[in-house]
Amino acid sequence: MAKYTVEVSQDYRQSVEAVFQKLSDHNQLGKVLGIPVKTDPLAHEGKPELVKAFQDATAAFDSSGLCIFTTFAWGLPDLQPQIAAACGDEFTLENLALIGERVWNMERDFNNRAGFSAKDDVLPKRLVTEAAKTGPAKGMVSKVPEMLPKYYELRGWDGNGMLKPETRTRLGL
């Protein structure tokens, strides 16, 4: 297999390291996203909600035309005034969140129509059956299978990972 090396500047490397340090210090992911929730990286409670919020916010950022990487420390409250100034007052915080949710569900619907479903929302078997051998999660396995039903419920999807009719109606899809 070919091995590639990517050269990056020292400034870039330091800024990326600073972002990851910020995220690892006291689990600040929720704070960076504008979501005032502290999370324990080893617990699975509250993670489906955080994942949905992150996905919706990311989709809204991507739709704005801004690079998600250059705006990583922003939340939707930082983006909203800029979009409203450029595009109109109808771009409220609530509407940006809805835009992100619609985008995420349109992507899921596309994937569903291409044949993907809950059967594809799985990790490799060893990650849910073999405990981690080292690190802070030593002795633990992934809890994704336990979190998926709650995530699907939050998304308005059925048990097979398909959009429910009421979700389509609510989002105008």
CATH C-level class is Mainly Alpha
Provide the CATH architecture: Orthogonal Bundle
Element string (H = helix, E = strand): HHHHHHHH
Structural class: mainly alpha
User: CATH topology, what is it called?
Assistant: Aldehyde Ferredoxin Oxidoreductase Protein, subunit A, domain 3
Strand segment tally:
0
Helix content bin: 40-55%
Average of per-residue pLDDT values: 81
Radius of gyration: 19 Å
Query: Which band does the percent of strand residues land in?
Result: under 5%
What distance lies between the first and last C-alpha atoms, to the nearest angstrom?
44 Å
How many domains, as an integer? 1
Largest sheet: none
- Total number of helices: 8
Which term fits the overall shape? globular
The CATH superfamily appears as Aldehyde Ferredoxin Oxidoreductase Protein, subunit A, domain 3
Runs with pLDDT <50, length 5+? 1-9, 12-29
